[in-house]
Amino acid sequence: MIHKTKLLCLLLVLSMTLPLASCGDAAEEQNNNGADTTTAVDETAEETEPDILAGLSYDGATFHIMTSDTAISSNYLLEGSGELTGDNVNDAVFERNLAAEEQLDISFAYTHTERAWDKVHSEVVQLILSGDDTFDMLVDDQRGMSSATIDMVFVDVAALPTVDLEESCWSRDYMYNLSIDYRSIYLMIGDYFMDVLNHSHALLYNRDMYNTLYGDPDDLYKMVQEGDWTYDKWAELSNGAYQDINGDGISDPDDIFGMIVGGIGGSSFPFTYGSDVPFVSRDESGYPTLTMYCDRLLLLYDKIYNMFYGTGTSTKYAENGADLHQKFMAEGALFISGTQLGDFGVFRDMEAEVGIIPYPKMDEAQANYVTVVHDTAEVGGIPVTAKNPEMSGAVSQLLCRLTHETVLPAHYEMALKIKYARDNYTSAMIDLIHDGISDMFCLVYGGAHANDIFTWAILEPLQKGTDAVTSAYESRKEAAETALAGLVETFKVNQGK
CA dist 331 to 201, 254, 326, 419, Å? Predict the structure, then answer.
């Protein structure tokens, strides 16, 4: 799996031979069929309606959770240490779990896994289809878990009477965007599954360096808040920050850069998927269709190319590696790309002031900033073999609700905003990044079920340093459409069994 010069006139020539879809029409179709279903929750109604969990008790049942526990997972926010330690976040986790156990009369038991991302699908499906009824909830990488939904191994939580997806503790739109038919909800994403927050991409910048180069570093925050933070502005600031330290006229590790990024691979995810390109749209039945090739795709490639190959950029670092972090901490770059919110603490001891901002809009025509969640962020599912799916739904509902009330404030407000934040605007920027979280069907399903066209139509020419995005798209289009249609058909057949 992939972890994270202007275009030549050839694009124009090629575009004449390959009709472009209307991005505006595709985006409108996408919006009409599920890309943006944000629904304001009536908080008054939510408070006055009967609580779906009222009176529920499960007579001391053990609730078994299989959870990923790796170096990059967030099990510490699910299971915690199992005791009070004086750490605000850990203690909030402990108290949340205890409160859930007491309210529903259950006890939690955890089984740890360390699956590689490419083993999640097969091993989860094998476990459930074997008839093993041990587990009441599974938590693992969304890429593999999404593929497992095609095999109908998870319960549709939208149909459970003990789950209310309208409560603010659930990421309702996110879940629908990961649904193949835009109706059935087989994966759970909500405040309890905080790995999603930790794996949200964000940009860091050196405020001291910005002050030396451009003046008040708060101006960048204001630019973001006013909606003017775009790729063109980012390229301008990045290129203007480059310094050839040894004067040899060659970009080398000793120089100071405008932006450093971990290679040209998975690092392209937040650049690509943070745009408003309509990679897929939903048909009248809610199923995904390929609509990515259009004017805005070509424009997006132009913007990304200019960033990766700009004079102020260096890509000669390992993806999210120590050398990348060390270069930034040594004040060797104005911006660092490839970091996620869960990485923010790595830089807390940096001497220079650090700022955090969302990835920019493609241009000012893009309505909102989009926060891309990495495809290995961990989400939940209730296996169809669970002994009592309604109990699993109730526990999931309560855990999300309690996390929203206690753990999220402790982690999000205390850890991210107060412990790590060192300037007046950071809290507002983290809010903006959090509110912009939007997982895309194409990022999670595209690799295995659409010939990886969504990533590689851009990444292939980007790695080669060419402008051949049109030919890269064309080379994958037929297989992508066939695979996507096959995905939908297999889903329909399996769902009807």
Answer: 21, 11, 9, 21
Identity at 369, one-letter amino acid code: Y
- Based on DSSP, count helices (H) and strands (E) in the chain, helices before strands: 20, 11
Query: Amino acid identity, residue 234?
Result: W
289: closest CA among 297, 279, 300, 299? 279
Question: Nearest-CA neighbor of 235 among 301, 299, 297, 306?
Answer: 306
In the chain, which segments carry CATH 3.40.190.10?
10-32+201-372+437-496, 56-198+375-405
Amino acid at position 454, single letter: F
Transcribe 185-229 into DSSP letters. Answer: --SB-BTT-THHHHTBB-EEEEHHHHHHHHS-THHHHHHHHTT--
> How far is Cα 324 from Cα 319, in angstroms, rounded to an integer?
7
Cα–Cα dist 60/391, whole Å? 12
Bridge partners (DSSP) of residue 492 are none
Q: How far apart are CA 377 and CA 178, in angstroms?
A: 13
The gap between the terminal CA atoms of the chain, to the nearest Å, is: 32
Q: How many CB atoms lie within 10 A of CB 302?
A: 18
User: CB atoms < 10 A from the CB of 274, how many?
Assistant: 24
Contacts of 201 (CB under 8 A, 6+ apart): 4, 269, 270, 274, 338, 339, 340, 359, 371, 372, 373, 374
Residue 1 has pLDDT above 50, yes or no: no
Positive or negative, the Cα torsion across 71, 75, 79, 84? positive
The torsion angles phi and psi of 172, rounded to 5 degrees, stand at -60, -50
**Structural contact between residues 279 and 449, judged by C-beta atoms closer than 8 angstroms:** no
User: Tens digit of pLDDT for each residue in 60-86?
Assistant: 999 999 999 988 889 999 999 999 999
Q: Hey, which CATH number is domain 10-32+201-372+437-496, 3.40.50.2300, 3.40.640.10, 3.20.20.140, 3.40.190.10?
A: 3.40.190.10
DSSP state of 423: S
pTM listed for this prediction: 0.86
Cβ atoms 95, 406 nearer than 8 A: yes
Q: For residue 204, is it left (φ>0), alpha (ψ between -120 and 50) or beta?
A: beta
* Rounded Cα–Cα distance for residues 333 and 327 (Å): 7
How is domain 56-198+375-405 classified at the CATH fold level? D-Maltodextrin-Binding Protein; domain 2 (3.40.190)
Identity at 351, one-letter amino acid code: E
Query: Which of these, 329, 359, 328, lies nearest to 202 by C-alpha position?
Result: 359
What digits encode the pLDDT tens for the residues 335-360?
Answer: 999 899 988 888 988 999 999 999 99
Are the beta carbons of 4 and 262 closer than 8 angstroms?
A: yes
The pLDDT tens digits for 418-455 are 788 887 788 899 889 988 887 689 999 999 999 999 99
